[in-house]
Specification:
Blueprint (H helix, E strand, L loop, with lengths): L1 H18 L8 H12 L13 H19 L3 E7 L6 E3 L4 E10 L5 E4 L4 H7 L7 E2 L3 E5 L6 E5 L1 E2 L6 E8 L21 H4 L1 H13 L3 H23 L11 E2 L2 E2 L9
Parallel strand pairs: 5-8
Antiparallel strand pairs: 1-9, 2-7, 3-4, 3-9, 6-7, 10-11
Helix pairs in contact: 1-7, 2-3, 2-6, 3-6, 6-7
Length: 260
Amino acid sequence: RSRVLKRLLLVTSFLVGISIPSQATLAASDVVSRARTFLKDSQTQPQRQQFTDAQLLQFASDGQREANAVNWLLQSSFTFSLVGGTTEYAMPADFMFPNRVWYQQPGQPYTKLPATSFNDLDARSPGWVTVNGTPLSYYIDMSTGTVYMGLYPAPVTSSTGPITVYYVQNTTDLSASNETAVPFNGWLALQPYTSALAYYVAYRGYLTMEEPELANGYLTYWVNLLGIMRQGLNRQPDFNPPAGALRGGNPVGMGGLGSQ
């Protein structure tokens, strides 16, 4: 009987979630409110609540990171200039990993640099660390705790020029001190997927309360919505790439959300 009641609770809370009138913009506070409905934790007095807002927002922040890591939701770009003799360059603080890298040699059009790695360079070009010339590829160095992009060969004065990096951004955590913040770094294009965070929060909440059946139910909702995010980002009304043209969460050749 208890199993039937739990299933009824899952179905009812799902219907409640989708029946809440949509707002112009869903903020962090809206995610918390919906999650409390799913968790039956809507007491107005904080001392009677199972979870604090800070706890639920931390769960939501974890959900943002997971969705972004799986689907490459947040993307941006920046440009820097090469310096002769300098091999490696620091990446932005919100850098997660590169999507594509363009290099413009003086007087030449932009060309796309392929990615390589330490192991690949060691195998193909012994002594590569001392090679100078026109950059032909790039690699990522995280050995110091700070993310650097290295160029191979290292640029010389005649091969300096701009490098434009398109990259996946890390998400910014949601905080109880700013519950009006819009999830996913404020990108309104991701609003159709923001309500999914409430299901992730409910999953984490029920997991904490040692209610595995309810937790797994909300986990299923969350996983399904991750797939909807991927489909929505990969395919657009005027862009429907064939199978095999997709790389991870985003189609090859597209700038992605947040590109500048």
